[in-house]
């Protein structure tokens, strides 16, 4: 699609994103190694070195770095400057741990930059993340969010553990640190991890799905009406609509199918809703949308579908109309069909040739 080629990131932007992400990932690995050395006491002489190394592994505070959001899903658009990473911790993340990481990151980032790249690091404890800014154009930023699987507690599991006498086994019940990061934020970051894994498994391999989502992301950024739809809900909706088709769809056909589906009122409050496949409990991915926002998007989709029927989809996509080369070909075809005089001449010419052949046959 012509629109997709204009919103896709240029090569310079892709290289800048790859550069800052790779530098950040390597720097976080060095920070993890540094924290491990400080947490684990100096090893005493022992004959079995293998046992010492295996014993150090559980003591690592930072377990891994995962790409999430538009970076992991391959949905980057031209002009996107911020990408996200999730830093998993072995224990519940705390403000003190976040500050320690933020203090060590600049030094480790400096070891990764062999060119003019320079980075600024800012800690945001209230948001449970650290932001890394690049100084080289195009300027990019990476948001590193801290979370841990321990933040997602299952009440049923907790009851089972209590029934089994967990407190009696340990002697003292586990108590969360006083400066633990906000649970709501950490749960949001865990959900982002699940969303990225689901998208890679279900949407990335679906023909035209990623292209249509990119176009709709651009529409959500340009139009306040569409911007009210949560990004995750939009991705879920497009995947379900395209995967339910009987066969592969071109980007244009897939876009039409999405508009047709939204036009039917699937987003309206009395509609079926949109089940979130990444949650254990039944969850509507559209629950954060107001009734007015749902009606506005439905009406906008209906209007876009009418424009599409009259070959004016460029007004919806925010682009110039395509060159009328194909229209010229259609006009030439209509002139051949509508040219009554020309058609008559052609038929008479054919009849004249036939008569001439007949006369030659008689003479022979």
TrEMBL record:
GO terms for cellular component: precatalytic spliceosome. One of its GO terms (molecular function) is single-stranded RNA binding. It holds the Pfam family DZF_N. Residues 1-360 form the DZF domain. Signal peptide: none annotated. Residues 38-58, 272-292, 322-364 are annotated as: Disordered. InterPro entries: DZF_dom, DZF_dom_C, DZF_dom_N, NT_sf. Residues 350-364 have a biased composition (Basic and acidic residues). This is DZF domain-containing protein.
């Amino acid at each position: 699609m012509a629109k997709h080629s204009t919103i896709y990131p240029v090569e310079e932007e892709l290289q800048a994103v790859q550069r800052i992400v790779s530098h950040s990932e390597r720097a976080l690995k060095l920070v993890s190694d540094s924290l491990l050395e400080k947490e684990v006491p100096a090893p005493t002489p022992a004959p079995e070195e293998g046992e010492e190394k295996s014993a150090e592994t559980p003591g690592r505070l930072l377990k891994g770095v995962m790409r999430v959001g538009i970076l992991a899903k391959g949905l980057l658009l031209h002009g996107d400057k911020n990408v996200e990473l999730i830093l998993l911790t072995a224990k519940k993340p705390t403000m003190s741990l976040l500050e320690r990481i933020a203090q060590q990151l600049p030094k480790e980032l400096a070891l990764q930059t062999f060119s003019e790249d320079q980075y600024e690091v800012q800690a945001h404890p209230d948001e449970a993340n650290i932001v890394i800014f690049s100084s080289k154009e195009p300027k990019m930023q990476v948001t590193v969010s801290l979370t841990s699987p321990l933040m997602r507690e299952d009440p049923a599991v907790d009851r089972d553990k209590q029934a089994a006498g967990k407190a009696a086994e340990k002697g003292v019940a586990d108590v969360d640190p006083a400066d633990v990061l906000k649970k709501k934020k950490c749960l949001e970051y865990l959900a982002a991890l699940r969303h990225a894994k689901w998208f890679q498994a279900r949407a990335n391999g679906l023909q035209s799905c990623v292209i249509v989502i990119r176009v709709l992301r651009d529409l959500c950024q340009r139009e306040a009406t569409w911007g009210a739809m949560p990004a995750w809900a939009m991705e879920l909706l497009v995947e379900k609509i395209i995967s339910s088709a009987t066969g592969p769809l071109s980007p244009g056909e897939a876009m039409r199918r999405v508009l047709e589906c939204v036009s039917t009122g699937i987003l309206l409050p009395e509609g079926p809703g949109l089940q979130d496949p990444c949650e254990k409990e039944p969850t509507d991915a559209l629950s954060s949308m107001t009734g007015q926002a749902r009606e506005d998007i439905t009406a906008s989709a209906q209007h876009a579908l009418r424009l599409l029927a009259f070959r004016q989809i460029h007004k919806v996509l925010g682009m110039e109309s395509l060159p009328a080369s194909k229209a010229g070909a259609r006009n030439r075809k209509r002139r051949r069909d509508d040219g009554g005089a020309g058609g008559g001449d052609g038929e008479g010419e054919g009849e004249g040739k036939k008569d001439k052949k007949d006369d030659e046959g008689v003479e022979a």
